[in-house]
Specification:
By secondary structure, the protein is an alpha/beta fold. It contains nine helices and eleven strands. The chain has a single domain (4-295), classed as TIM Barrel (Alpha-Beta Barrel), CATH 3.20.20. The chain is 44% helix and 16% strand.
């Protein structure tokens, strides 16, 4: 199967940018709507807290705003830091977003790393792995069972009926990098989502995933990659040279790592709105068709 392609968005506005946040958010939503029109498969929304540039802290709130402004693009979290949240509230909010979007949500969760975020929200960072595992178990029950019965280290629920429930099984991906975390993702999730700072990082992570899948065989277990991809056609000749090179890198990465989905950052911090739109169009019309054509040969 050829890979699919999406975008990532964090709605962050550099502190030097004087654009009012209301206007900036409207620009970001326009960029996501354009990605939907251009045929990108998924938009992935970050979660971070207490940053100076306002990096998105509320991914499911943003997902609910995106749902009525788009028609077909999948809406994913990348990643929702589950240990920082009450799992029943996440189950409720995710179900609402999935229903509002007509079944387009993918919930990707992870344990995160940022000490300041755990401290600021009053959660013991040392418990993040156990909170993640327990939270996933609660999510599954909340969506699949009439009521949640759970007695764990962090949460206890005695027959709580969580409503609404989604009308389908919401895909639940897990973000992971280290070996134990990747094995946990394979045990508990429906796929692995990984940020790749550079393409050279990915083969080792593919190997970790393959080892984990050997221990816990799955019929399907997609690998989703997110990273930075930016094109700047200063002239026709420059673009003619850049697009094939970018496409060839994606093709080579796919051949080596067999990724299922790749999402690039739609608007790098400081990039003007007009340039973000232009880049989306260029990636959709020049890079992706070339990559899809090569990977289907």
């Amino acid at each position: 199967m050829p890979p699919t392609f999406g975008i990532s968005h964090d709605l962050r506005r550099p502190t030097s940018d004087p654009t009012p946040l209301t206007d900036y958010y409207a620009q970001c939503l326009t960029e996501i709507s354009e990605a939907d029109r251009l045929g990108f498969d998924t938009v992935w929304l970050s979660e971070h807290h207490f940053t100076d540039d306002g990096m998105l802290p509320s991914s499911l709130v943003a997902a609910a705003a995106i749902a009525p402004r788009t028609e077909r693009i999948g809406i994913g979290t990348n990643i929702l830091v589950l240990p920082l949240h009450h799992p029943l509230r996440v189950a409720e909010d995710a179900a609402v977003v999935d229903l509002l979007s007509g079944g387009r949500l993918t919930l990707a969760v992870g344990q995160s790393y940022a000490a300041a975020e755990f401290a600021g929200l009053g959660v013991d960072r040392r418990e993040r792995a156990s909170r993640l595992e327990e939270g996933i178990a609660v999510l599954r029950q909340a969506w699949d069972e009439p009521a949640v019965h759970h007695a764990g280290r962090h949460w206890r629920f005695d027959g709580v009926p969580v409503r609404p429930q989604p009308q389908r099984r919401i895909p639940l991906l897990v973000g992971a990098v280290a070996e134990r975390a990747v094995e946990r993702a394979v045990r508990l999730g429906d796929g692995l989502i990984v940020y790749c700072g550079k393409p050279a990082d990915v083969p080792a992570r593919r190997q970790l995933l393959d080892r984990a899948l050997a221990n816990h065989p799955r019929v399907e277990f997609p690998l989703v990659l997110t990273g930075i991809l930016h094109v700047a056609p200063d002239a026709d000749q420059a673009w003619a040279e850049a697009a094939p090179g970018i496409a060839q890198r994606l093709i080579a990465l796919h051949r080596e790592t067999r990724f299922d989905h790749f999402a690039h950052w739609a608007r790098l911090p400081g990039l003007p709105h007009e340039r973000a739109i232009e880049t989306l169009r260029l990636v959709a019309t020049e890079v992706i068709p070339a990559a899809e054509q090569e990977t289907t040969r």
